[in-house]
Amino acid sequence: MSPTQKHRWLTRPDSRGKKRITELRKFALDRARSDFESRYPGVQFGPIVALVAAYNEERNIGDVLKAMPTLVGDLEVSTLVVVDGGTDDTAGVALDAGVYTCILPVNMGQGAALKLGYQLAAAHGARYVVTLDADGQNDPAELASMVQPLLDDEADFVIASRRLGVDQTTDRFRRAGVKLYASVLNNIAGQELTDSSNGYRAFKIEVVNDIVPYLIQDQYQTSEVVITSSSRGWRITEQPTVWHPRASGVSKKGGNLVFGLQYAKVIGTTWLRVKKSNQQRT
Ligand SMILES: Nc1nc2c(ncn2[C@@H]2O[C@H](COP(=O)(O)OP(=O)(O)O)[C@@H](O)[C@H]2O)c(=O)[nH]1
Ligand SMILES: [Mg+2]
Q1: How far apart are the first and last CA of the chain?
Q2: Of 235, 154, 220, 147, which Cα lies nearest the Cα of 189?
Q3: 233 DSSP 8-state letter
Q4: How far is the CA of 243 from the centre of ligand 2 (A)?
Q5: Which residue, judged by its Cα, is nearest atom 11 of ligand 1?
Q6: Is residue 153 helix, strand or coil?
Q7: CA separation (Å) from 158 to 18, 144, 189, 220, 274?
Q8: Which ligand ends up closest to the CA of 55?
Q9: Which of 236, 240, 47 is nearest to 157 (CA)?
Q10: Cβ 224 vs Cβ 111: under 8 Å
Q11: Cβ(35)–Cβ(105) below 8 Å
Q12: Contacts of 276 (CB under 8 A, 6+ apart)
């Protein structure tokens, strides 16, 4: 362990340091947004936006984009990739595929990248937003079935479920975690979800507009989105899907222990935040 790691608490940012980080974050987000606006001046997305946050996925994202549908019924699907910084050519692959591409100058985390994507989708005319991973774990061919409950007005927010569908991965610990965290989250949010951490999700734009101001998690965002939407009274449902192994590479969210602890932390802090704001309202 290096001295800097050992004494990290000594170098935690003070209030001026935190202010500087906030300013740098804003700078990066503003830069990505203004680059996007000048690359696609006056763009209007189709009614459905497929939103993909991608971090160092140059080897995987090309196939995902190739498989993306361009229509659901007679509704046009626009694909929007938010390239989350990184060191490979993810941006080049997305641009070559001809999809809308927004490029963050530095890595900000999946939550921050998706939040930027939600804002762009809402600002450019989307009526429905579907999020899916860039690594091939979600099948773009299932996008139509993800959106259907929204089109039928049976739900406002749809979450894919590998437990109602098929899980083709073999990691037993991750599987147990999916089950455990779904039950914790159901207790907190009063839902009956089987796979609350699945990133394949479809939203009505009204839900996106309503929850975006409450989203603060830069990375582990899945439970924050569910708890927030649930506390705001939106109707959440599930759709069975297939969960594929990553096309290549490994999860960038850390091993199961790191992932699990971070996930639990987000559930806890979001729940406390929602509880506090409900108390303030009453
Ligand atoms: N882990 C991670 N993923 C990111 C980040 N930014 C965007 N992503 C994308 O988020 C998706 C899910 O990430 P992944 O590491 O596969 O997480 P997992 O599927 O939950 O194990 C992928 O499409 C990533 O490319 C980031 O900073 N970290
Ligand atoms: Mg993945």
Answers
A1: 49
A2: 235
A3: T
A4: 10
A5: 133
A6: coil
A7: 36, 12, 15, 19, 21
A8: 1
A9: 236
A10: yes
A11: no
A12: none
Q: Is 110 in the pocket of ligand 1 (CB under 6 A)?
A: yes
Residue 219 burial (C-beta neighbours within 10 Å; 0-12, 13-18, 19+): middle
Q: Global pTM?
A: 0.91
Q: How many CB atoms lie within 10 A of CB 113?
A: 28
Residue 11 is given by DSSP the state G
Ligand 1 centroid to Cα of residue 144, in Å, is: 23
Q: From CA 262, how far away is CA 257, in angstroms rounded?
A: 8
Per-residue pLDDT of the chain (282 residues; tens, 9 = 90+): 455 556 666 667 778 888 899 999 999 999 999 999 999 999 999 999 999 999 999 999 999 999 999 999 999 999 999 999 999 999 999 999 999 999 999 999 999 999 999 999 999 999 999 999 999 999 999 999 999 999 999 999 999 999 999 999 988 888 888 999 899 999 988 999 999 999 999 999 999 999 999 999 998 899 999 999 999 999 999 999 999 999 888 876 667 787 788 878 888 888 888 877 777 766
Cα–ligand 2 centroid distance for 217 (angstroms): 18
Q: Which ligand is nearest to the CA of 198?
A: 1
Ligand 1 mean position, distance from CA 220 (Å): 9
What is the biggest distance separating any 2 CA atoms in the chain, rounded to whole angstroms? 60
Atom of ligand 1 nearest to the CA of 132: 23
Beta strands in 172-270 (DSSP E): 201-204, 236-243
Ligand 1 atom with minimal separation from the 57 CA? 25
**Ligand 1 in reach of 84 Cβ (< 6 A):** yes
